[in-house]
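In the laboratory, one determines a bound structure by crystallizing the protein with its ligand and collecting diffraction data. In a computational setting the workflow is compressed into a single prediction: the sequence and the ligand go in, and a structural description comes out. We illustrate the idea with fe (ii) ion.
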Amino acid sequence: MFQADSVTITVLVENQVDMLLPDQDSPVDSGDHCVSRWGLIEHFDNKHIPPQAENGISFLVEARRDRHVTKVLFDVGLTGSVLAHNMNVFGVDPSSIDHVAISHGHPDHFGGIHKFLELAGRRIPVATHHDAELPRYALMGDGRMSSVYNSAFGFDAIEESGGRPVLSRDPLDLGWGVRTTGEIERKTAFEVPPPFVSGNPGLYQVSREGDVRRDDVMDEMGLVIDVKDVGLIILTGCAHAGVVNTILQAKKIYGDKPIRAVMGGFHLGFPTTPQQNVELTVDALRDLDVETIMPMHCSGMRTHAHLHGDKRYLQPAVGTVLHFGK
Ligand SMILES: [Fe+2]
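The predicted complex, in structure-token form:
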């Protein structure tokens, strides 16, 4: 399997902007990476347009090997307008993207796909899971039912917009050490949701056979970059499958390599998520020796509070650029 010599990851869409965050070297002084921020100068200086935040996520992953580079967009945010704005702010040419990978079929992750494909202006592969387009809706605690919220992610519609859906339950090789995890095995006890009671509030999905079932988001996949002499960098969309399970899946694909960084949605932000799950997740990340932890998007304030002060913790913001490797 190929490894990347280095990777640069730019946070294009996230729930937060924060111009006060400093640039920094590695929190653990390993010397193999740096973090730069879109900071106060860029926000105040009239030569720049300030970036925007929204409830969603999108990373630009640029993996290099020798003179070669592959550019992967992992998720595309909620609206498309914020992604388009921020790509313009950060000088990212949409037509330069080689692959899009969508973590799962929820709008805060796929929502910008049509806008992005329009801007790209050429046919770009869009990797996702077969079940990502199956109809989904939510049943609220007060009895209200949402509309089907993933109809815009039909694979025919993606094709019409200029994308080329690449459907896989297995890991997909996107080049130079970048792979999707494929479907994630759910084996960590505290990340398994409680037993399903039909009719209870929650997320629902209609199966291919037409049955209504609880939506356990089995289509969710992460993105892993294997960087030479560094280890694995793991990105999560929402981590409905569990962030610990996502790491274990990455280890299953790549073997027992060091986990240099984990970043993305940790799915711990619901008020109903037990505090214990926040603590168990952070303990597990420590046990797995994850060197840099950047909870984002749906991770929730309790996760940030619990990790605050830990040298491995990195606060997320749109415009954060992380570089790993030589
Ligand atoms: Fe999400």
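The radius of gyration is 19 Å. Keep in mind that any predicted model is a hypothesis to be tested, not a measurement.
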